[in-house]
């Protein structure tokens, strides 16, 4: 539980914790590679710690202290059959990417997670992995956890994913790396491409083309030695929105990942009128990185839909907060994927921002938000969803009086130290 007072502005220079998507992949690929990998800037959040714990249960030696990690890879077939159940906690990325890896392994494993994971659809990965030859059993015919899998002897497939999902794309690509022949994955819109970029830095050939990706089976991963994880733009988004909505704010956020498949939030902030400049644009381990300066400016409502949605899917809860402080109507559409995240994020955003006085209504595939509204302190709940807890906290900064947020422990999933960071910037 956390109590937050309305504030005037946020100011200063900060960094944010490491990128969650990149941290998961860095651990998984280092475990499967030949050679030792040092990871710097790792996100020590609950989700990435679940990934570490699962690979330790498969015999991989992982030293981790805060954001420093050292992994001794054993090669693709160096994993051993886990004697215990693999518990992914709250992490969709861990379970879906690991299913792709386990589909290639000639042993049996059982995967479980928390009650949120138990509600999230797994058929989107178990269907293509079964087509490749993996033996998967689970609740509702492999649609939900608990799941068990025995892999090996896969055949490459050509698969058309019905959703734009990096987790589906990554699971199929990883299985494809050890399948006979070629594996091709088509997706309706481009999802984040961290898997493709990082696989290349491990010496893998991955071909990206308009509408999909292709890999050849039988490739080995070779450690690049060192991986530097940039700050997570999805975490920076909460601070960016706080600065955008609070008059007099001025923040400099250093070392943030700027992968173009993730920068929808930057496009939205600019289109709504925020005063935002990127500095020092550079590349680290094949991932673009920059420093972001943002100042408050008057905001206007916009329409958000189509190809931009996968580029900002995790930012929609906090974009909804932004929209409450913009003049006019903001419409978010084509975002039905929000219903299958840690919570149904259409329902939880509407419920929690509604408690603070936002004018927000749900639609089939998004939300309509009318601004600008005066928010008033209330009692909110994260519903166990880190992004809902942090979005409510940012809204609370703009609200009059005091807001209580319940179940804030969930924020550790992606942003440990969130409240301390926020407090550092409050004037
Ligand atoms: O691959 C990843 O690291 C992620 C992909 C996205 O999920 P989907 O693949 O379900 O879109 C995103 O919402 C999640 O936070 C992380
Ligand atoms: C959806 C998310 O993560 P995951 O799918 O890994 O649980 C998220 O971090 O918002």
From TrEMBL:
Top-level lineage group: Bacteria
GO molecular function, one term: 3-phosphoshikimate 1-carboxyvinyltransferase activity
Annotated catalytic residues: 314 (proton acceptor)
SUPFAM superfamilies: EPT/RTPC-like
Residues where phosphoenolpyruvate binds: 20, 92, 120, 167, 345, 387
Catalysed reactions, as listed in the record: 3-phosphoshikimate + phosphoenolpyruvate = 5-O-(1-carboxyvinyl)-3-phosphoshikimate + phosphate
PROSITE patterns, per database record: EPSP_SYNTHASE_1, EPSP_SYNTHASE_2
Transferase in keyword set: yes
UniProt EC number: 2.5.1.19
Enzyme class (EC, first level): transferase
Gene3D superfamilies on file: Enolpyruvate transferase domain
Alphabetic keyword roster: Amino-acid biosynthesis, Aromatic amino acid biosynthesis, Cytoplasm, Transferase
Broad class of where this protein is predominantly found: cytoplasm
UniProt pathway annotation: Metabolic intermediate biosynthesis; chorismate biosynthesis; chorismate from D-erythrose 4-phosphate and phosphoenolpyruvate: step 6/7
Subcellular location: Cytoplasm
Domain Enolpyruvate transferase as annotated: residue spans: 5-422
Binding site for 3-phosphoshikimate: 20-21, 25, 165, 167, 314, 341
Transmembrane segments: none
Record CDD domains: EPSP_synthase
InterPro entries in the record: Enolpyruvate_Tfrase_dom (IPR001986), Enolpyruvate_Tfrase_sf (IPR036968), EPSP_synthase (IPR006264), EPSP_synthase_CS (IPR023193), RNA3'P_cycl/enolpyr_Trfase_a/b (IPR013792)
Cited NCBIfam families: aroA
Free-text function comment from the UniProt entry: Catalyzes the transfer of the enolpyruvyl moiety of phosphoenolpyruvate (PEP) to the 5-hydroxyl of shikimate-3-phosphate (S3P) to produce enolpyruvyl shikimate-3-phosphate and inorganic phosphate.
Self-association and partners: Monomer.
UniProt record similarity statement: Belongs to the EPSP synthase family.
UniProt name for this protein: 3-phosphoshikimate 1-carboxyvinyltransferase
Gene of this entry: aroA
